[in-house]
Amino acid sequence: MRADSWAFQSDNSASRVMERTGGRLACSTVGLWLGLLLLCSWGFPGGAEPRAPPENIAIIGAGIGGTSAAYYLRQKFGNDVKIDVFEKGEVGGRLATVTMQGQEYESGGSVIHPLNLHMKRFVKDLGLSAVQSPSGLVGVYNGETLVYEESSWFIINMIKLIWHYGFQSLRMHMWVEDILDKFMRIYRYQSHDYAFSSVEKLLHSLGGDDYLGLFNRSLIETLQKAGFSEKFLDEIITPVMRVNYGQTMNINGFVGAVSMSCTDPGLWAVKGGNKLVCSRLLQASKSNLISGSVMSIEEKTRTKQTGNPTKVYEAVYQTGSETHSAFYDIVLVATPLNRKMSNITFLNFDPPIEEFHQYYEPLVTTLIKGQLNSTVFTSRALDEFDLSTVLTTDNPDLFINSIGFVSSVEESNNNPQPKADRSHVWKIFSAEPLTKEQILKLFVSYDYAVKRSWLAYPHYMPPEKCPSIILHDRLYYLNGMEVAASAMEMSAVAGYNAALLAYHRWNGHTHMIDQEDLYEKLKTEL
Ligand SMILES: Cc1cc2nc3c(=O)[nH]c(=O)nc-3n(C[C@H](O)[C@H](O)[C@H](O)COP(=O)(O)OP(=O)(O)OC[C@H]3O[C@@H](n4cnc5c(N)ncnc54)[C@H](O)[C@@H]3O)c2cc1C
Ligand SMILES: CC(C)=CCC/C(C)=C/CC/C(C)=C/CSC[C@H](N)C(=O)O
């Protein structure tokens, strides 16, 4: 790390960089003084004073993307900048819970992968704790019968898998592992403060043309080319895509791999609810939460106290029946840009900021406390039915994508066993709301049913282009990342990236943006 590249950073990140450089320079006070002396004698690069931080930053959306961006923006720009976070609904966005008989259950984003390091770090740094996600036995139903059923004996499972599908399950696991390994490179890039101006450049930096190719091609095309059989794709891969993204194997290969990684062991969630991460990030970033809906953004010229005319963005927003406006140096949009989800108008930009018509898949989460009618899936009675999740194949006659039993956000449940009574809460994913008749088909009887409808994930249709991260000079968009894959960790990566990008562009650190061959360059860095 060159002296000039960290000299301008806020106290926080400078000390982090120094921590990383370990014994070489940072530990020694002598080194620090030497560094300062050198800076004084060389002056700042270009002879210019470091630029003062922005006065005001707006973030639209208090989901995990917006709140993680607030957290990292505070780290980068320091304490003098005012950060306003606008939220028209609940803090957490698609991380949300529903309450049943006094217990809360995740109704949106629920599971976190053990290698999702940003989420892991948030939980640790924000004083939260993790609970293990239920990991019981899974079966696959094709509308007539269970075509695959896991066994509680590891060895039997292996034999079953090999008997049905040869070594394809193992090959699939290796394929996903390789993609995840490369994905982990982003943490190294971000810890060294590197940013990307487009999602495509970010993906390319992780594994070159092949990695970007995953995003540009459908999962089915990639897996067929790799020689996976129709039977394996229909009975194992499709059901996993249906439970996770409510879609078929026509999604892109990258999101397909992200989805497959949910079959890894060790999935977890935040005790008390995943949305707690968002409220804690807001608190830790000392942001002001404004409960209101942003309606428009327009660039304006204002004369600040310094007397200089400055370009700022005016955000017009509504709180209740009142309309207000405020001015910002930097704006981050942390919500999908489309009429149904955010309805933000960009006024008088030249060239105009394109409207994204990204279609988000409707999905319904229904939570039901009741006694499952196991005979829908098998001739066995519930007391002999040991599956905790039933996935489904792509059969148009089926009205659910999946059904599985869940624990409340307070419980850790490593080895759940369905009981032949009404005490379990089951989570069902379906494309449309379930009718009473459909619920009564699935349950012998039930006490409670609560549903939550979502526009859940982008409808994936490769090849497609990710929307720009830079919408205008100091106006950034985070949710283009979801076009690669939608997951909490992806939004956290997007939040960090947008914060770094905004910081570097504000300070003219062009060498920290879109660096090629980063993996090679950072190989020897600690
Ligand atoms: C049912 C379901 C299950 C899921 N399961 C998982 C899972 O198990 N694991 C996982 O990793 N991911 C999961 N996901 C995906 C994950 O939840 C999302 O990718 C992630 O939460 C998106 O976060 P975000 O901050 O980018 O967007 P959001 O959470 O959508 O946040 C955007 C926020 O902006 C607000 N907003 C919109 N417009 C405006 C406006 N004009 N003014 C002010 N505020 C505005 C919205 O109200 C919202 O709160 C799931 C999603 C769903 C729906
Ligand atoms: C970003 C990386 C590398 C990994 C993230 C893996 C992950 C946790 C993806 C989430 C996929 C997703 C949208 C799942 C939705 S359903 C989840 C669960 N089956 C449930 O029952 O709620």
Automatic annotation (TrEMBL):
This is Prenylcysteine oxidase 1. Belongs to the prenylcysteine oxidase family. GO terms for cellular component: lysosome. It is found in: Lysosome. Prenylcysteine oxidase that cleaves the thioether bond of prenyl-L-cysteines, such as farnesylcysteine and geranylgeranylcysteine. Only active against free prenylcysteines and not prenylcysteine residues within prenylated proteins or peptides. Involved in the final step in the degradation of prenylated proteins, by degrading prenylcysteines after the protein has been degraded. The chain crosses the membrane at residues 25-44. It comes from Neophocaena asiaeorientalis asiaeorientalis. It holds the Pfam family Prenylcys_lyase. Its EC number is 1.8.3.5. SUPFAM superfamilies: FAD/NAD(P)-binding domain. GO terms for biological process: prenylated protein catabolic process; prenylcysteine catabolic process.
